[in-house]
Each structure stands twice: as structure tokens, then as C-alpha cells.
């Protein structure tokens, strides 16, 4: 089974996002695996007028929120089923595009530049950072923000496809990797889980040189 096929299978099992969150909002950005928990899009800075790329955009709901705030958004995802669902739900939103393409393939071929790159439990978790970080950096505008989240190192979750494909590093390793690839102001930390839960969320942010 190809990687795209295994991610397509995984997509089938994923639950669609609710129509509204606890605040009654119809769009929102959530970095964590828990509903209505953790920071919002503020850590990206103002996004109005910014070109945003999401790597592994899934059903597109996080990216759609940024577009409602005035960004233009491109979501890339390796799984064709994801593009179909994202287009069905968010296809009417001007300034928002979705494409079925593997993240490194997209970044290697595009001539587009982005002000913000984000990845929420997305491709940054699943591609070797030694391969992916230089490709991301090459397509980012100076001063642009890279931010991503994933489960903390050592936490368990079923993984689709090939064994060993996750790259869930510690905060200090992410900071070293990002700095080593020329990003500045790299900061990584684990967001505490909600009460009664034990697994937090790794959240990482850095600035493109
Ligand atoms: C755990 S899901 C998260 C989806 C979405 N970001 C969310 O928060 O709901 C991981 C997503 O990354 C996509 N993905 C995994 N590896 C990828 C790669 N190398 N290139 C592009 N997309 C990838 C998968 O198809 C899947 O949609």
C-alpha cells in the first residue's frame, strides 16, 4: 500500500469537526488533540493579507479559519480523500485552495513563497526534519512564521502506514534542529492537557531568516 493510500484509509476513520465550538464560533484554530483547548491562532501573528501554507491540512478547518481572518490559504495533503472533504466543506471560501500532493514534493517544485507555514499533527510530524526543514525555509518569506504541533515524544497513538514514520522530538531537539536550519527564535514546549487527561501537545514556533 502506498503512503497516500494508507493516509486515505486513515482519513476514512477521522471524525468531521463540529459545526460550532464551545464559544459558538463556526471556524477556529486548534493546535491540540482536544476540543476547545490550548492556544489559538494568535501565535502566528496577524494573518490578514498573509500567504499561508498548511502541510497536511486534513479536512481544512484550521486553514479555513485563517482565511476567514483575511489570509490566503493553500492546504496540501497527501490523501486524496482529504482534498475532497476539505473542498466540500470549505470550497466556497474565496482565497482558499486545497491540493493533493505530498509535502516535500510540493515544496521542491513550487515557486510560491509563504509568510506563514503551519502543520497541525501534519506532515512536519511525518517527514524527516532534515529533509523537510530546508524545503520549508526555501519557500518562506523572511520573517515568516513556521508553527506546528504533534503529540509529545513517547506518547502512544495508532499510526497509519509504515512503522517509525513519526518524528516526534523533544522541545530541545526541535529548537536545535530549527536553529541548525537557519530559523531564529525557535521555541518548543508541551502544552498541558485538559484536566483528567495525561498527554499534552508539543507546540513549536520559529521565524524564517
Ligand atoms: C493526523 S492527520 C491531521 C490532519 C489535520 N492537520 C488536523 O489537524 O485534523 C495528518 C494529516 O497529514 C497528512 N500527511 C501525512 N504525511 C504527509 C505528507 N508527507 N505530505 C502531505 N500530507 C501528509 C495526512 O494525509 C493527514 O491528513
TrEMBL record:
GO biological process: methylation
Ligase found in the keyword field: no
Pfam family, one: Methyltransf_23
Record's keyword terms, sorted: Methyltransferase, Transferase
Coiled coil location: none
Any one GO molecular-function label of the UniProt entry: methyltransferase activity
InterPro entries: SAM-dependent_MTases_sf
PANTHER family in alphabetical order: TRANS-ACONITATE 2-METHYLTRANSFERASE-RELATED
Protein name in UniProt: Class I SAM-dependent methyltransferase
Source organism of this protein record: Streptomyces pyxinicus
Amino acid at each position: 500500500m502506498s503512503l497516500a493510500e494508507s493516509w486515505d484509509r486513515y482519513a476514512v476513520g477521522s471524525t468531521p469537526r463540529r459545526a460550532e465550538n464551545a464559544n459558538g464560533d463556526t471556524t477556529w484554530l486548534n493546535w491540540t488533540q482536544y476540543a476547545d483547548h490550548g492556544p489559538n491562532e494568535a501565535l502566528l501573528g496577524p494573518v490578514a493579507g498573509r500567504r499561508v501554507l498548511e502541510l497536511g491540512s486534513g479536512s481544512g478547518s484550521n486553514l479555513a479559519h485563517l482565511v476567514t481572518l483575511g489570509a490566503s490559504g493553500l492546504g496540501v495533503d497527501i490523501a486524496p480523500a482529504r482534498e475532497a472533504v476539505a473542498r466540500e466543506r470549505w470550497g466556497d471560501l474565496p482565497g482558499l485552495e486545497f491540493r493533493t500532493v505530498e509535502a516535500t514534493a510540493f515544496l521542491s517544485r513550487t515557486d510560491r513563497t509563504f509568510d506563514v507555514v503551519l502543520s497541525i499533527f501534519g506532515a512536519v510530524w511525518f517527514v524527516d526534519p532534515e529533509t523537510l526543514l530546508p524545503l520549508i525555509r526555501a519557500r518562506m518569506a523572511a520573517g515568516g512564521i513556521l508553527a506546528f504541533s504533534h503529540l509529545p515524544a513517547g506518547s502512544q497513538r495508532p499510526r497509519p502506514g509504515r512503522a517509525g514514520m513519526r518524528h516526534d522530538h523533544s522541545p530541545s531537539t526541535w529548537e536545535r534542529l530549527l536553529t541548525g536550519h537557519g530559523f531564529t527564535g525557535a521555541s518548543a514546549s508541551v502544552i498541558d492537557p485538559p484536566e483528567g487527561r495525561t498527554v499534552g501537545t508539543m507546540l513549536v514556533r520559529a521565524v524564517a531568516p
